[in-house]
Amino acid sequence: MAKSQNILTCTEEVRVRFNETDPLGIVWHGHYIVYFEDGREAFGRQHGLTYLDIQKAGFVTPIVKSTCEHFLPLKYGETFKIVTTFINSNSAKLIYRYELFNEENKLVCSGETIQVFLDSDNNLCLYNPEFFQAWKDKMGLS
């Protein structure tokens, strides 16, 4: 069940690189998942929940589900913004929603990823790890 007291977002601007496009100059569909990663990295830096923070606490967070819907193409040289939103949940999960907007502020792509917590023995955590619960408390998400 999701909670919605606070909404945490982060916006990151990215430029489409040549190596991300197909022969038509359009971003290859697989790169959108990489853009989601860019959004998560930026979110972590802005809100104090980086992969290094998670690793230092003794956990890893593999992705167990990802979705991606495409609406408009991005082309080589364009800049776009990634809006990453943390979806609060009672479960021991990291859920992020993504929206990518082109230079005209039109929605290009949207998606979501779900990550779970594994401890140092690769055991699935059924409850929020202490460090994550402390982060949620600090951010007003409890």
UniProtKB/TrEMBL annotation:
Its EC number is 3.1.2.-. CDD domains: 4HBT. The keyword Hydrolase applies. GO terms for molecular function: hydrolase activity. SUPFAM superfamilies: Thioesterase/thiol ester dehydrase-isomerase. InterPro entries: 4-hydroxybenzoyl-CoA_TE (IPR050563), HB-CoA_thioesterase_AS (IPR008272), HotDog_dom_sf (IPR029069), YbgC/YbaW (IPR006684). PROSITE patterns: 4HBCOA_THIOESTERASE. Keywords: Hydrolase. The keyword Hydrolase applies. It comes from the Bacteria. Belongs to the 4-hydroxybenzoyl-CoA thioesterase family. NCBIfam families: YbgC/FadM family acyl-CoA thioesterase (TIGR00051). PANTHER family: 4-HYDROXYBENZOYL-COA THIOESTERASE FAMILY MEMBER, NOVEL THIOESTERASE SUPERFAMILY DOMAIN AND SAPOSIN A-TYPE DOMAIN CONTAINING PROTEIN (0610012H03RIK). This is Acyl-CoA thioesterase. It comes from Chryseobacterium terrae.
